[in-house]
Specification:
single chain; 365 residues; alpha/beta; Nucleotidyltransferase, domain 5; 2 domains; six-stranded mixed β-sheet; five-stranded mixed β-sheet; 37% helix; globular; binds adenosine-5'-triphosphate; binds magnesium ion
Length: 365
């Protein structure tokens, strides 16, 4: 499982090696998105997991801007609302952040012994960071040792102020943030828990949210490429708002099918959005194949709320020439059919992918 979570302050190593488990064998993932907050609780069931709870609450516009919390009170209230609806067994959660405050970089470093690896990684990392090192919290995950005696690692660095705003929002809502991860690693976790790994193939996992699309290419358990693009469902909502002369909230309701069948104009805008997402995905994949010597991508899995855009998978498949599906985080996760219907799980599958990946991250510790 991917595991470069971010901890606060200097206690990073003990954090990584710590044995943090949720209460009663459960694991909670909390995804604070630009448009909504999603909460999921899983329970250990033998070697696999069972879905206990899933909840989602929409956020008002402008609460999260550029993937940074600008209205902390609204975030705290929304988490509290979710927690009030769900009787969590554990308050320990894994949450995530994304955007320009987060830097993920693969590095190859030379360290004479494992003890010096961290010093060397952090020292070399300073040259890559667009921020002053005093402003960031860093962590890393070792991938492998190379033949020339170097160690391949994935560096994760995040702006301290942004990390603190996520941590304190979660704390102020009465939860305990144990790990702060990224959407990329959550996607990888949910993929690896639910799909067989084929060593000869790389897979592109893409979360298309409200403010952004996040792509990670995974090959043999390693996130070999990540790309964050500021193209999300909000662009489509704004188009609907503009073309139909609606408020943003009404455009959002209309788009999500809350006002009955879609008017033709909206369906047309949806198809344009699908084409735009597909073109962007193709561009990122072309960039990956041009800049990396890694295995070619052989298939695509889509998640995030905007993956529900009708025809999106087919459009992506047409434009990229690669088999494309909506990710199913419930392939290997059991559930009580008296609590969740198959239709409900199908509907939430793309939205639940990242929060389930986050919960699995906590469960893997
Ligand atoms: N049925 C649907 N058809 C089209 N778009 C949809 C549908 N359901 C949800 N969406 C869109 O999905 C987006 C929300 O997805 P998601 O919850 O994954 O984003 P987020 O996590 O809040 O944002 P981000 O990850 O970008 O910060 C919104 O733009 C919403 O309009
Ligand atoms: Mg999201």
């Amino acid at each position: 499982m991917a595991g470069a979570g971010l901890s606060r302050g200097a206690d990073i190593l003990s954090f990584l090696s710590g044995l943090l488990t949720g209460g009663g064998g459960t694991a909670v993932g909390l995804s604070i998105g630009s448009s909504s907050i999603k909460l999921v609780e899983l329970k250990k069931a033998g070697k696999s997991w069972k879905l206990l709870h899933f909840g989602i609450v929409q956020l008002p516009e402008n609460v999260i801007v550029n993937r940074e919390i600008v209205n902390q009170i609204a975030v705290v209230e929304s988490i509290k609302t979710l927690v009030g609806q769900i009787r969590l067994n554990s308050k320990a959660v894994c949450t995530a952040l994304s955007g320009t405050a987060l830097i993920i970089k693969r590095m190859s470093v030379e360290a004479p012994n494992p003890r010096e690896l961290q010093d060397q990684v952090f020292w070399e990392a300073e040259q890559y960071l667009p921020f002053d090192v005093s402003e960031v919290v860093m962590d890393f995950h070792t991938i492998s040792k190379t033949r020339d005696g170097k160690t391949d690692v994935i560096l994760v660095a995040v702006k301290r102020g942004v990390l603190d705003s996520y941590m304190s929002s979660v704390e102020d809502a009465g939860l305990s943030p144990k790990v702060v991860d990224s959407d990329f690693f959550a996607l990888q976790n949910v993929f690896e828990a639910n799909y067989p790994v084929n060593p000869s193939e790389a897979v592109a996992l893409i979360d298309i949210g409200a403010a952004a699309s996040k792509m990670v290419v995974v090959h043999t358990g390693v996130p070999v490429f990540t790309k964050d693009t500021a193209l999300g469902g909000r662009n489509l909502t704004s188009e609907i708002q503009r073309n139909l002369n609606l408020t943003y909230a009404d455009a959002e309701t209309l788009k999500m099918g809350g006002s009955g069948p879609l008017p033709q104009e909206v369906s047309d805008l949806m198809q344009i959005a699908a084409d735009n997402f597909a073109t962007e995905i193709k561009r990122s994949l072309d960039f990956y194949s041009a800049s990396s010597s890694g295995a070619p991508v052989s298939s695509i899995l889509l998640g995030g709320g905007s993956a529900r855009i009708p025809n999106l998978s087919r459009t992506v498949e047409d434009v990229t020439g690669l088999p494309t599906q909506i990710i199913n985080p419930f392939n290997a996760i059991s559930y009580d059919p008296a609590v969740f219907t198959q239709d409900y799980l199908n509907a939430i599958a793309p939205l639940a992918a990242v929060p389930i990946g986050l919960a699995l991250r906590l469960g893997a510790r």
